[in-house]
Write a structure and sequence with these properties.
The protein is 92% helix and 0% strand. It is mainly alpha-helical and 180 residues long. α1 crosses α2. The chain is rod-shaped.
Length: 180
């Protein structure tokens, strides 16, 4: 700081008039002068300080304007990035819809193919079963015919045996009648 003009002689004179000794008045005047020099600001010091404050204020305004400009740039970048992200999301959404529809269509085709294959297999099994049932019926009829033939054969043999037994019985009765 710059020195402030302080009249130590005038101050010391006043102190002597108030009853201080010359030595006391001079010591106190010097102490006051040092105090003023060390702690009081001059008009020039205040003007310098005001100029520094104004310079700092102007610099802060410039910095603040730069911060505002940068914020606006970042906001514009963010808006652009958000718009780009939304556009990309819509592209992905559309792509997913297409893929889902393709998968659905493919599943429908595969389901129809499986249904058709099952129908063919069921029809083949039905045809085979009908054939097997017809074969079983035919075989049953063959067995029935064989059994009928065997029964008729057995019946003829039994008739012959019965007839033979009757002839023998009649012969035995006739021989007994003759003997008696």
């Amino acid at each position: 700081m710059s020195a402030v003009a302080f009249d130590t002689l005038k101050f010391a004179k006043r102190l002597k008039e108030a009853g201080f000794s010359e030595q006391q008045a001079e010591a106190l005047a010097e102490a006051e002068a040092e105090l003023f020099e060390a702690h009081l600001a001059s008009k020039q010091d205040i003007l310098n300080l005001e100029r520094q404050i104004e310079d700092t204020r102007a610099e802060l305004k410039r910095d603040l304007a730069e911060v505002h400009r940068r914020i606006e740039e970042v906001q514009a970048e963010l808006k652009h990035d958000i718009a780009e992200t939304q556009r990309r999301i819509e592209e992905i959404r559309a792509e997913l819809k297409r893929e889902i529809e393709e998968v659905r269509a493919e599943l429908k085709r595969e389901i129809e193919e499986v249904r058709a294959e099952l129908k063919r297999e069921i029809e083949a099994v039905r045809t085979e079963l009908k054939h097997d049932i017809a074969e079983v019926h035919r075989r049953i009829e063959e067995v029935r015919a064989e059994l009928k033939h065997d029964l008729q054969d057995l019946e003829y043999r039994m008739v012959i045996k019965l007839g033979a037994m009757l002839v023998v019985a009649v012969g035995v009765v006739a021989a007994l009648v003759k003997l008696l």
